[in-house]
Amino acid sequence: MKKPRIGNDLTQFLGPFLSEFSPQQMQVADYLIKNLAEIPVLSVPELARKAGVSEATVVRFSQRMGYDGFTDLKMDLMELLRRQIHGQRDGEKTFDASDALDSAARQAVRNIESTCQNLSRDSFSQVSNALIQADHIYAFGLGISTCLAEIFSYMMVQIGFRATVLSPRYSSPLEQMVALRPSDLVVVFSFPPYSRSALEVVENAAGRKIPTLAFCDRESAPVAQAANWVLPVQTENLLFTNNLAPVLMVMYALAGDIVAKKEGKNITAITSINKILRKDPGLIR
């Protein structure tokens, strides 16, 4: 059988198969249409549980459309999700090779403007308050989000907070979370392709009554469903990776808001760090 092609509309793609689906397979189709953003973290058992069907039904559903199995179908669904997130259609040109610098700058500006327009100021203020009240801030991310977690932790230390990165390099982040308390705050960065590890960190914290903050690209992202606070950031990019400029902008804004709210109480920490940097013989001036 010729391999199917989903294109840009899952509902339209499934149309010709609807008459062939069993009632249970229709449940799978309906769940995927309504929850496409979850596809990166869905396994056969997970999809079966959420759709209320057997695992065999999920496999037969995939095969009915010409795929070898759910893994094969999932790859196409992830590509569809990527195009939807980045507002792309097949063959659409999103990068002007004649002026790469201008194209990249315009994309970053569009992302930042959209993020500023859509981000609730009340939610933003609640997040900065939660960071101020936390005894210890723990940040986590996988892939490029690991860098974001490290930068965020560094910025929090710079303004006088205790902050630590939950590193995926040497042990499971869940192991490192054993000593966390409800007075702490877990900050998770999760952008497409979403990682199951990020979702597990948020769910683990939520189960132990530890507050969580999620930086993600949309409020329907998997981690957003379990987090106490969500900061949606538009990260559309000219390439297949996420654009980090708007995420960094939100981080800087949070740090500035925190400093303003603390009315200079963390100036001591900032001053001390500056003195240390000035005296560090290893720095090139």
SSE layout and pairing:
Blueprint: H1 10-14, H2 23-34, H3 44-51, H4 55-64, H5 70-85, H6 100-118, H7 121-133, E1 137-141, H8 144-158, E2 163-165, H9 173-176, E3 185-190, H10 196-207, E4 212-216, E5 229-232, H11 245-261, H12 267-279
Parallel strand pairs: 1-2, 1-3, 3-4, 4-5
Give a short synopsis of this structure:
With 285 residues, the protein is of the alpha/beta class. It contains twelve helices and five strands.
**Poorly predicted runs of 5 or more residues:** 88-93
Q: Please outline the major beta sheet.
A: 5 strands, parallel
User: Structural class from helices and strands?
Assistant: alpha/beta
Anisotropy-based shape: globular
Series of H and E elements: HHHHHHHEHEHEHEEHH
Mean pLDDT: 84
CATH domain class name of the largest domain: Alpha Beta
Question: Residue share in helices?
Answer: 40-55%
Task: Tell me the β content.
Answer: 5-15%
How far is it from the N-terminal to the C-terminal residue, by CA? 65 Å
Count up the domains: 2
Classified in CATH, the superfamily of the largest domain is: Glucose-6-phosphate isomerase like protein, domain 1
CATH topology of the largest domain: Rossmann fold
The radius of gyration is 22 Å
Number of H/I helices: 12
User: Which architecture name of the largest domain does CATH use?
Assistant: 3-Layer(aba) Sandwich
* Widest β-sheet, arrangement of strands: 2-1-3-4-5
Number of strands: 5
